Amino acid sequence: MNIEKRKFKVALITGITGSGGSFLAEYIADQQPETAIHGIARWHSTTSQNNLDTIKSGVTVHECDLMDFSTILAVLNQVKPDVIFHLASHANVRAGFITPLSVINNNVMGTANLLEAIRSAQLDPVIQFCSTSEVYGQVSQDEVPILETTPLRPSSPYAVSKTTQDHLGFAYWRCYGMRIIRTRMFAYFNPRRTDLFATSFARQVALVEAGLQSELLHGNLDSVRTMIDVRDAMESYWVAAEYCEFGEAYNIGGSTTISVGEFLRILKQLAAKDIPSRVDSSLLRPADVTLQIPEISKFSNATGWQPKYSFDESIRHLLDYWREQVKSNPENL
C-alpha cells in the first residue's frame, strides 16, 4: 500500500436508504464511530427507511433528489462532506429493459448533477463511485478473470448508464482534478435487494417453507457469478476511499464462483421442505451477462483488503433474513 491512509470526519451516502447504502451506513456506524454519517434519499424512497432502523439515531437523512440540482447544492453546503459514496441509482437490470429512458436519465443526469453541485459548492471531497461489473457486458472465456482493462461493452440500458457514470468520473478527475475513485463491484449477496437472483431465491424458499407460495420461479440458471457478502462489499467501499488512487478503477469481488443453478441447488438443500421450481419466461432478460469472474488483485494490492465472510455464512445470513421477514411480516411479502 503506497498511499497514506485517509481519515474522514463527515461521510455523505447517496441512496442511503437503499439496500447497499443502508449496509454501508451500518458499517460506518459500527466500525468508524468518529465519522458523522449523512445521507440523501428521495421522498418516494421512504418505504425503504426501515433499512436504517438499527442506526437511525446516528444518521442524518436529507430529502434530496439527484435530478434536482438546487437541493443537492443545498445539502452539500450544509453537510460539507469530506467523503462521498455515490450509490444512488436505478439499479434493477431487468426493469431497465422496460423503462430504459428513465433509467438512463436518472443515473446519468443524477450523477452529472452531483458532480456539478460539488464543483459549485467548491468542495474537495474524496468521491467513491460505486459501480458494477455490468459495465463489462458479455465477455468471452479468454477474457476471464476480468481485468480493469477489459473493454467496457454494456449489454443493457442499466449497464450503459453505469458505464456513462464511470466515464463521467474519469472525465471529472482528468478535467477538474476531482478526487474520484471508481469501483466495479461484482455479484453480491444482499438480503435487502429483492431483484437480485440470490435474494429472490431465498425469499421464495422462505415463502414456500411457510406455505405462502407453491413453487419457486426463476430465470436463466446458466449464468456464472463470483459472489461476495454485502457486508464485505460495503467495507471494501470504505477501504477504497481510504487507500485507492484517484482516477483509477478497481474491480471488487468475492472468492466463490458459482452458477445460478448451482446456487439454487444449494439453497434447496438448506430448505426445511421440498422446493418445487420452474423457469418463468418473464424473468428472462432480452440480453444477459452470463460470465462475471473478476480479477481483484489491483484492489487487494492497493488496500490489503480481503473478504471476511465465507460463502456458507453469506447464504445462511441471506436465508435467515428472509425466514425472519416471512415470519414477522408475511402480509407485506
Could you walk me through the main structural features you see in this protein, from its secondary elements to its overall organization?
Helix 1 (19-31) crosses helix 7 and helix 4 (100-120) packs parallel to helix 5 (157-176). The protein starts with 9 loop residues before the first strand and ends in a 5-residue tail after the last helix. It has helices at 19-31, 69-79, 93-98, 100-120, 157-176, 197-209, 230-243, 260-270, 297-303, 311-328; strands spanning 10-14, 36-41, 59-63, 83-86, 126-132, 179-185, 188-189, 216-218, 224-229, 249-252, 256-259, 277-279, 291-292. The chain has 333 residues and is an alpha/beta fold. The radius of gyration is 19 Å and the shape is globular. Helix 1 links the parallel strand 1 and strand 2. It contains ten helices and 13 strands. It folds into two domains: 10-188 and 229-253, NAD(P)-binding Rossmann-like Domain (Rossmann fold, 3-Layer(aba) Sandwich), CATH 3.40.50.720; 197-224 and 257-293 and 310-332, UDP-galactose 4-epimerase, domain 1 (Alpha-Beta Complex). A seven-stranded parallel beta sheet has the order 3-2-1-4-5-6-10, sandwiched between helices. Strands 7, 9, 11 and 13 form a four-stranded mixed beta sheet that branches. Strands 8-12 form a two-stranded parallel ribbon.
